[in-house]
Amino acid sequence: MKQRFWVGMSVVVALCLSSSSWASPVVDGSIAPGEYATVITDVPGEVGYDPAMNIASIYLDSDASWNYLGLDVVAGAIANNGGPSSFLGHTLLLAVSSDNATPTPNPLYRLIVDIQGANNIVALQTYIAGNWVTTALNPADYAVSVGSELEVKIATSVMSLPGTWNLAAQLDDTGSNPDDQLTGLVPEPSTLALLALGTMALLRRRAA
Ligand SMILES: [Ca+2]
Ligand SMILES: [Ca+2]
Ligand SMILES: [Ca+2]
Predict the structure, then answer these.
(1) CA distance linking residue 129 with residue 102, whole number of Å
(2) Going from the N-terminus, what domains does the chain have, and what CATH number goes with each?
(3) What is the distance in A from the centroid of ligand 1 to the CA of 2?
(4) How remote is the CA of residue 50 from the centroid of ligand 2, in Å?
């Protein structure tokens, strides 16, 4: 019984370490296993996209200072020029957040990452009284890195998301290929840590 307790404990510790409360993602253009608290995986086997423009998964996390978003594609590194069919030579990521209100969620933010070769332009719009209003971003408000994957973080001072929210994202090739879309619910970051703590309490009780 004691051995099982410690095996359980190490699982709990691993869970805690991989969840947002313990380690925040690093915006370095590369997504490591367990780096993000939430993963939304796209439908596999989608056709008609350049593999370097076909979203595989979107990764999300947050801490007191930052909201984090990562994106990987189904094969190779994400295209930084829109891919073979692009008219503009840009890859555009649009990530729209809304709250979890029923029956109609309220729009919150639009995050735009415009990748132009080595240049990455980040823009933010906030939904205020029925209008999308551009938020002026200072360099200290965000960081972006495009390597094999895309990673971006936005300060919570300019983008304040509720505990649970909805994501609608689109990766646009600025060309004639279809643009890949992904939607999903992003759970409260602390849920995972609470789950781990709950498991720990349960194991402790069982071991006693
Ligand atoms: Ca990273
Ligand atoms: Ca996809
Ligand atoms: Ca297109």
Answers:
(1) 19
(2) 24-188 (2.60.40)
(3) 37
(4) 10
